[in-house]
Structures are given as structure tokens and as C-alpha cells.
Write a structure and sequence with these properties.
Layout (H helix, E strand, L loop, with lengths): L2 H11 L4 E6 L2 E5 H11 L4 E4 L2 E7 L3 H11 L3 E7 L4 E8 L26 H17 L1
Parallel strand pairs: 1-5
Antiparallel strand pairs: 1-2, 2-4, 3-4, 5-6
């Protein structure tokens, strides 16, 4: 089973809650959870897989993000995956309001992952515009 499939199953199990899983040195959330956290906590989205966003924060910042999560009052569950033992453990569970977000991505073209559209001159033009806007913001 892949990591992404494990996340999908956890999200089905924890429907309406934000789900984080520790992977390496980061806790990550995907799909609609990532969209919510991008909107509410301004976490930076990136592509997890095709048409799916992810956000994350470093393990060392867990307390800081628990405070932020508690302020937005959504239910959440944080898991840790142990690759050596091939085990999954629930670390924190917080009961709050259930979310109803359904969008799994913000706008995947903005992530710069448009390799499959190499031949499309219109999408290339759009991508170049976005890149120049990002450069202008710096």
C-alpha cells in the first residue's frame, strides 16, 4: 500500500476531521484538509499527486501549530507513521467542528506541475505569466 492510499483511508475513517500524518520531519495534510489549512492558516500548498494539494509543518513546530489549529476550532487527528516498525500511531485527537470543504486543490497549475501539458501553448503562456508574477512579488 502506498503512503497516499494510507492517507486516503485515514481521511475516510476520520471524515470531517483534518488529518495529519508525520512523514519524516514533517506533519502533512492533503486534499480538502490542505485547502482548509491554506485558507485558514496561510500554509503554503504544493502538489502531493495529480490534482491534490498538500501542506505541512516541521515536527519541531508541532506545539505552535496545535495552538493555531485550536484557534480555528476544527476537529483534527495527528498520526505518526513509523517506517521501521511499519506502524501507525494516533498522537493527538481534538474534537471540534466538522469541516465541509470538498475542494482537493487550490489550482494545480499554480504549483508548476504542468509537464503533461507541454504541448499546450495556452497553458504554457499561463504558466509563464504566473511565474513572472511570483518573481514580481519577491
Amino acid at each position: 500500500m502506498s503512503f497516499s492510499r494510507m492517507l486516503e483511508l485515514l481521511k475516510k475513517k476520520e471524515k470531517g476531521k483534518i488529518v495529519f500524518v508525520k512523514l519524516g520531519n514533517f506533519y502533512i495534510a492533503t486534499e480538502e484538509d490542505a485547502v482548509i489549512l491554506h485558507k485558514k492558516l496561510q500554509l503554503q500548498c504544493s502538489c502531493f499527486k495529480n490534482n491534490t494539494c498538500k501542506v505541512g509543518f516541521p515536527v519541531i513546530a508541532l506545539e505552535k501549530y496545535i495552538e493555531k489549529l485550536d484557534k480555528i476550532k476544527y476537529s483534527y487527528v495527528i498520526y505518526a507513521y513509523n517506517s521501521k516498525e511499519k506502524s501507525l500511531q494516533e498522537i493527538i485527537r481534538k474534537v471540534g467542528k466538522q469541516h465541509k470543504e470538498t475542494a482537493k486543490n487550490i489550482n494545480c497549475l499554480l504549483c508548476g506541475k504542468i509537464e503533461k501539458y507541454k504541448e499546450d501553448e495556452y497553458l504554457q503562456a499561463f504558466y509563464k505569466m504566473i511565474e513572472s508574477q511570483k518573481e514580481g512579488e519577491k
